Automatic annotation (TrEMBL):
Biased amino acid composition, Low complexity: 363-374
Species the sequence originates in: Tumebacillus amylolyticus
Region called Disordered, residue ranges: 307-374
SH3b domain location: 372-434
The protein's name: LCP family protein
Coiled coil: none
Bias-annotated ranges (Gly residues): 315-362
InterPro entries on file: LytR/CpsA/Psr_CW_biosynth, LytR_CpsA_psr, SH3-like_bac-type
UniProt xrefs under Pfam families: LytR_cpsA_psr (PF03816), SH3_3 (PF08239)
Similarity section: Belongs to the LytR/CpsA/Psr (LCP) family.
């Protein structure tokens, strides 16, 4: 008799588990069906050009936080976080993209990257970032301020150490008023924490806090109690979310559970070494060295141990960047077992290109010194390229009348520094030495 009761109890527990699991799966499918069908942020003018993920290899997901206070407005993306999940290395890498980064927006022209969302919704922002970084984006999630706050409230808030008093008068609804010190933040307070730009490093500090919050949320979401609350959380944020994550739900869920979120790498795009703070007209922008940014991102994605220039096994980009087993690019870039490229680039077992480029078992290009001469752009619009040759990537542009500092000559190309501090190659046919 006792044996029968025992088996009945086991059977009852199994039924409850199956029903609960089935309810969770149903809730997830229902959520992703809804948020895929509803397009609160799309303009209707752009196709969705995400890459196809087959369930194997790394998958890249773009998270967009939108400052949408009026449903009739076409808002910019206040937050852009690109997460790369690698099932082979179990590594999670999260890149926060600076919203003032000055890039080419397909079909629109050059502008701050956050303007792409206003011009063409998530679809155009995806196209812009794929074009900028040359990596595929497979999935996206877009939510607004209210959706973000609901997510934080749904997981019971987060604990952070606010470094100083955060105070900023906004519109009476989204004012910021946080006190210095360790504290538990609810959704609205967490939104204030990731939005504040009043510190000395402004958006640099802000994106760093955003990456911190991503780590905290990821850790809390993996707990059993949060998994049980998943249906409630999804239902809460459904009205504020747009996504295509439901296209491969089971594979993504399995992958997410296998990853080590506590070892998450978080980085800034562009890295400090690969950007120049300047003005376009009267607008302050971050002008990226596109070639260096791409090298930096690839260094992180292809080597989970790669870090910043000061990391012994990391990636150095920009002027004097060093990575002993990573990738160094830009002026004086060094990579002992990676790739050194640019002026004085050195690679111990790799290829060095540019002036005095050295590769232990690689090769160096032929270069002649430009002796620090200056040159005036004679063409109306001249492309600045990552390497000498029309087949190489355009990383910027210079315009008629601009004065360039010539660092070297490589055949029919000049390696130059622009007035904004960018380095690249221009064809000698469209500039005139002074």
């Amino acid at each position: 008799m006792k044996k029968k009761v025992w088996w009945r109890l086991i059977g009852f527990v199994l039924v409850v588990v199956v029903l609960f699991a089935g309810y969770n799966v149903y809730s997830m499918f229902s959520f992703f069906h809804t948020v895929s069908a509803n397009k609160p942020f799309s303009t209707g003018d752009q196709p969705l050009n995400t890459a196809k993920w087959e369930g194997k290899g790394a998958v890249n997901i773009l998270f967009m936080g939108v400052d949408r206070r009026d449903p009739n407005d076409r808002p910019r993306s206040d937050t852009m976080l690109l997460a790369s999940l690698n099932p082979d290395t179990k590594q999670v890498s999260v890149f926060s993209i600076m919203r003032d980064t000055y890039v080419d927006i397909p079909g629109v022209g050059r502008s701050k990257i956050n303007a792409a969302f206003a011009d063409g919704g998530p679809e155009l922002l995806i196209d812009t970032i794929q074009n900028f970084l040359k990596i595929p984006i497979h999935y996206y999630v877009a939510t607004d301020f209210e959706g973000f706050a609901k997510i934080i409230d749904s997981i019971g808030g987060i604990d952070v150490n606010v470094p100083e008093d955060f105070v900023h008068a906004d519109d009476g609804i989204y004012d910021i008023n946080l006190k210095k010190g360790q504290q538990h933040l609810n959704g609205q307070q967490a939104l204030e924490y990731v939005r504040f730009r009043g510190t000395p490093r402004a958006d640099f500090d802000r994106t760093e806090r955003q990456r911190e919050v991503v780590k905290l949320v990821a850790e809390k979401m993996k707990s059993p109690s949060m998994l049980m609350k998943a249906p409630q959380i999804l239902k809460t944020i459904e009205p504020y979310t747009q996504s295509n994550l439901g296209d491969n739900l089971f594979s993504l869920g399995t992958l997410a559970m296998s990853l080590d979120s506590s070892n998450m790498k978080t980085e800034q795009i562009p890295p400090v070494e690969a950007l120049t703070e300047t003005y376009v007209g009267d607008e302050a922008v971050l002008m990226p060295n596109v070639g260096q940014v791409r090298d930096y991102v690839q260094g992180i994605l292809n080597d989970p141990n790669a870090g910043a220039a000061q990391d012994a096994n990391g990636t150095g980009s920009g002027k004097n960047g060093t990575g002993s087993s990573g990738t160094g690019s830009g002026k004086n870039g060094t990579g002992s077992s990676g790739t050194g490229q640019g002026q004085n680039g050195t690679g111990g077992t790799s290829t060095g290109s540019g002036k005095n480029g050295t590769g232990g078992t690689g090769s160096s290009s032929t270069a002649q010194s430009g002796s620090g001469q200056t040159a005036v752009v004679t063409g109306e619009t001249v492309n600045l390229r990552a390497k000498p040759g029309t087949e190489y990537q355009v990383i910027g542009q210079v315009f008629q009348g601009d004065v360039l500092t010539v660092e070297e000559q490589v055949n029919d190309w000049y390696y130059v520094q622009t007035s904004t501090g960018m380095y690249g190659y221009v064809t000698s046919a469209l500039v005139k030495l002074q």
